Amino acid sequence: MTEDIVARFGDLTAVVVGDVMLDSWLRGSSTRMAQEAPVPVVTLEAIDDQPGGAANAAVNLAALGAHVHMLGVTGADPAGATLNASLMSHGVDGLAICRNRRTAVKRRVVTGSQIVARYDEEDRSPIPESAERELIERIRELGPGADVVVVCDYGAGVCTPAVRRALLDLRLDLVVDAHEVGPWRECRPAAVLPNFREVLRLLGEPEQEGDRVAFLTARSQRLLDETGARRVVTTLDGEGALLHRRGREPYRTRATPAPDQMSTGAGDTFTAAFALALAAGAGEEIAADLAQAAAGVVVRRPGTAVCCRDDLLRALRRRGAVSAARLAELVAEERALGRRVVFTNGCFDVLHRGHVACLEEAAGLGDVLVVAVNGDDSVARLKGPDRPINSCEDRVAVLAALGCVDHITVFDGDTPEELLRLVRPDVYVKGGDYHPDLLPEAELVRELGGEVRVLGYVQDRSTTAIVNRIRG
Predict the structure, then answer these.
(1) Helix H or strand E segment including 358
(2) Which string of DSSP letters, residue by residue, matches 18-53?
(3) Which 8-state DSSP code applies to residue 108?
(4) What is d(CA 454, CA 362) in angstroms, rounded to the nearest whole number?
(5) β-strands 67-71, 231-235: how paired?
(6) Which of 61, 363, 396, 433 is surrounded by the fewest CB atoms within 10 Å?
(7) Cα(290)–Cα(333) distance, rounded to whole angstroms?
(8) In what helix (H) or strand (E) does residue 235 lie, and over which residues does it extend?
(9) Which residues are designated catalytic?
């Protein structure tokens, strides 16, 4: 069970190697524009300094329960002192300090919830040889005792060829988050986690405006070949992520979209949770879902945020879209407590009163309501090329807000047959003017020991009617 995986985090030791920075958030109010330029005047009210980059990955690992050593480089300057103190307060140790190097700082000016400016200070030259030697010694000292090594290579000078060779020589399981993943190919990482733009650079592809999931799916095996990794996780912000494995179809996680300015550091959180889950023995799909849940915690918080173990456990227990594998775990837990499981499925595009009435009635037929939602491609096949009106992520988010819904999953087939075999519901529910015996799923549900119920039809309430009225 996923909670058991999270409980094991406290037994793990993680080493983080990479480029650290200080994320500084300058917050204030603005009531006027400047006279000398068309920009807002922000009256500074607070400064929030947080570990960023590899340091943010490190504090997320520590907050999730792991014992963490951070191998990076700062300058002997006030920003470096602030960053070191912040890491120590999170229980993370290990930064080297260079007197002739400037600590990287990203400062964001924020008024209300809007970032109005950002200015950076950084030194992207390779680190001095003395610092490089110190890092390599620490890698050789700490690496053999680590359960997982996380590399955060943002091209800021820490991950030199000599550092990569030191990691290669130890034959460690590496989880690599890098702006350029190509140089890490010889290390044969356990996983690499590029975002979409980094994938395009890796593959030499131009900017894409179409379906990013379809684009990546078509290039899944090529990604594995180009990176040399056993797993590639391509992160897509509000669209979730795709997990690529050799010889298998990509597995997609689902995310609830958040404003772009709220996503700072979410990738570091995803990387930290994914790495720990793999080290704790989770299956790849469970690890990806768990990492998505952790990232979902921080995108709803201001600044550079951290997901702790309790945050993650709460997120996992909240209603929301889960994988089929996770759903099987949850249903097993519910049944172990003697609960009666009700299952229904549908597109739920433009949620209306008829949907809500049906779901509330369905929930009253048992103790736990599972809702399976048709994915976007499935809806288009069933309803036509101009549907769905709302994306799968948006439809799931609305359903998750209903108190009567306990668990949500997404399926891309035309029928929920595989999910029915997995869940084996006590009651299968459909709404509308069907006869129970005419439902295509009825025979399977009865074979599995469940009963079939058709609920009352709410007159004059349908998505098609609503869409037609809008278009008219």
Answers:
(1) helix 353-363
(2) E-EEEEEEEEEEEEEE-SSSSSEEEEEEEEEEEEEE
(3) E
(4) 9
(5) unpaired
(6) 433
(7) 17
(8) strand 231-235
(9) 268
Residue 352 and residue 185: Cα distance in Å, rounded?
A: 50
The count of residues in the chain is 472
| Phi, psi (rounded to 5 degrees) for 106 | -115, 115
Q: Each residue of 160-188: pLDDT tens digit?
A: 999 999 999 988 889 999 999 999 999 99
Identify the three-state secondary structure at position 379: helix
Consecutive H or E run containing 272: helix 266-279
- DSSP letters spanning 281-350: T--HHHHHHHHHHHHHHHTTSSSS----HHHHHHHHHSS-EE-HHHHHHHHHHHHHTTPPEEEEEE---S
Q: Is the model more confident about 394 or about 80?
A: 80
The string of pLDDT tens digits covering residues 225-280 is 999 999 999 998 778 899 999 989 999 887 766 655 555 778 999 999 999 999 99
Number of H helices, E strands in the chain: 18, 21
Sign, Cα dihedral of 274, 277, 282, 286: negative
Residue partners of 146: CB distance under 8 A and separation at least 6: 13, 14, 15, 69, 172
Q: How many CB atoms lie within 10 A of CB 190?
A: 18
